[in-house]
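Hi R.,

As promised on Friday, here is the backbone we talked about, encoded as structure tokens. Could you run it through your design pipeline when you get a chance and send me back a sequence?
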């Protein structure tokens, strides 16, 4: 199954929250959904699910979601950690959600155990922490064994061990031929989880590519060279068209990924090297670079 979003558009008054957004989600991979705060990620997910009215279409295995007999078997969504009746027990909440697809009580108990809430099954979610609410939300999303998961910031409120568990679970879920589409501001964590990224800013598409390809486009990818004759090495590199700038006391940040070429230049000029290290940008660095001028809400420098 593939999920195709085409021309998704949504405005609130004169503000365009989502702007003609199109992308395709493929099975078998975790796709990270990234964007600055206020970029339209949550609204996009709501449009995909038909929870918000706007323009454009989203098809699930070639059909709109409403055309499927059991929508919860097609997609499981978790968009709000507090989306439950606070006076209904966790188990009763999942039994209610499972009614649409005739989910058995045994499956409800299986999912509660899977997300670590078996001991809390008879408790009311109004007593739950944010992290426990996230686990209950995930339990609801996977209850009917859907072919796609849409998760909006599911790691909020989770401790480090739970975040690691979530990462491993979502990678496993995708590996079974399912679609996983997850938004998160935890970019270090996303780098360990997502094979593909969809990046938006101000409602418009910036990137739809593999995470590796997105990172490789960053100018933060360079080579650190340390030498006691830094100035001479810099001139020698520039003479053959390789740009370099000072980095630290005796280092150069060289705009190249070919360490052999740099070593050859140093050898040809009889210049000693103390270090020659390829440096790769992180997903966070690439994201911040690509969206540097796209922030709707920037941090100020304080008042004078």
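Update: got your reply. Pasting your designed sequence below so it's all in one thread:
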């Amino acid at each position: 199954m593939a999920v195709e979003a085409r021309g998704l558009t949504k405005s609130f008054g004169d503000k365009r929250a989502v702007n003609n957004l199109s992308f395709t989600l493929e099975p078998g991979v975790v796709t990270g959904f990234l964007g600055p705060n206020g970029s339209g990620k949550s609204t996009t997910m709501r449009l995909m699910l038909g929870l918000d009215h706007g323009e454009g279409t989203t098809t699930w295995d070639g059909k709109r979601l409403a055309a499927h007999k059991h929508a919860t078997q097609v997609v499981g969504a978790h968009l709000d950690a507090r989306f439950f009746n606070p006076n209904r027990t966790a188990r009763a909440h999942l039994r209610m959600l499972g009614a649409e697809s005739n989910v058995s009580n045994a499956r409800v108990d299986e999912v509660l155990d899977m997300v670590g809430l078996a001991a809390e099954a008879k408790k009311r979610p109004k007593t739950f922490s944010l992290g426990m609410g996230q686990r209950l939300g995930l339990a609801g999303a996977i209850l009917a064994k859907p072919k796609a998961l849409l998760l909006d910031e599911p790691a909020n409120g989770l401790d480090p061990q739970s975040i690691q568990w979530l990462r491993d679970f979502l990678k496993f879920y995708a590996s079974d031929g399912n679609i996983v589409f997850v938004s998160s501001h935890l970019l270090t964590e996303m780098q360990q989880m997502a094979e593909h990224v969809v990046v938006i800013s101000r409602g418009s598409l910036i990137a739809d590519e593999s995470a590796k390809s997105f990172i490789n486009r960053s100018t933060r990818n360079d080579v650190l060279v340390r030498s006691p004759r830094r100035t001479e090495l810099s001139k020698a590199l520039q003479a053959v068209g390789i740009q370099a700038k000072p980095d630290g006391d005796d280092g150069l940040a060289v705009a190249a990924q070919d360490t052999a070429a740099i070593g050859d230049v140093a050898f040809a000029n009889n210049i000693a090297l103390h270090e020659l290290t390829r440096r790769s940008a992180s997903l966070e660095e690439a994201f911040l670079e690509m969206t540097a001028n796209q922030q709707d809400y920037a941090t100020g420098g304080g008042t004078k």
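One thing I noticed while checking it: The mean pLDDT is 91.

Thanks again,
M.
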